[in-house]
Amino acid sequence: MVGIVLVSHSAGLAAETAALAVGIGGAGVPVAAAGGADDGGLGTSPDRVTAAIKEVNQGDGVILIPDLGSSVLTARLLEKPGSVVIADVPFVEGAIAAVVASGAGSPLDAVLAAAEEARAYRKT
Amino acid sequence: MDTSFFAAWIEEIATAVRDQKDHLTQLDAAIGDADHGANLDRGFAAVREALAASPPETPGALFVLVGSTLIRKVGGASGPLYGTVFRQLGKTLGAETADVALGDFAAALDAALSAVQKLGAAVEGDKTLVDALAPAVRALTEGMQEGPEEAFAAAARAAEEGAQATVPLQARKGRASYLGPRSVGHEDPGAASTALMFAALQAAGGR
Hints:
Shape of chain B: globular
CATH topology of chain B: Serine Threonine Protein Phosphatase 5, Tetratricopeptide repeat
Largest sheet of chain A: 4 strands, parallel
Helix content of chain A: 40-55%
Radius of gyration of chain B: 16 Å
Helix content of chain B: 55-70%
CATH class of chain B: Mainly Alpha
Largest sheet of chain B: none
Distance between the termini of chain A: 33 Å
Low-confidence stretches of chain B: none
Oligomer: heterodimer
């Protein structure tokens, strides 16, 4: 299955979004939260993101979902074309869509496309 | 210019960042999230430790270590951005060259500018560190024939002027861009720290 890494400035936000996505999207999908700076405060820790990528990588590719700012820049530095890719999506909706698609056994490009569909979903 | 020259530059930067830590954070408090000084200081403290633990043998290796350490330790957007600047400097100079000619350093700085612009998708006028870095690289390149001291002085001047010129700009990147017109009237903290790095280069070159 495609692995999903949630990269947020907040450790709590990343962990809860991961729990929400797995709860709604399906258990058994490799999802890891990489939130907060090294000291646990607000920020981004490249070491945490690197460890999370390793944790969820089952050989089918990994999708990084960053929130903003340094999370996005850090994710860009860790991208590997064809295997570790960023989804340019709303954090919560994109995470859920990616987990659902990964749980259905979709390949990396299809999981990415499913996550990106979340961007077009209108709430009004 | 050899490894010890560039190590002295990095040491000058680390000292200046520590001295200006509160000033940088105050600039960031106006339009950012008030952590630029503290983040950079944490990053350069880690750089000092990394350089002391395993002193690099070439300028290229030194800059790669500086960049990689900043990426890992800063914690904010300036980590990936400055980390990319220094890592690209190192990659362009190469791990083998022991003595760097001024022209090669200018070319490596230009490559570093391109790399950070690619990462952050920023152009001049967006009110970012690019507004200090780009004119500094141009001034250093143009001042090369005059020798390193003059070239570094010109680069430091251009970076400082570039940083001051961000005051009337409206931010188009980062958190400050959400403020719209309210970002006008404040110096960009990233441009300010870039100016500080080129002032440190001038100081290192004047010894």
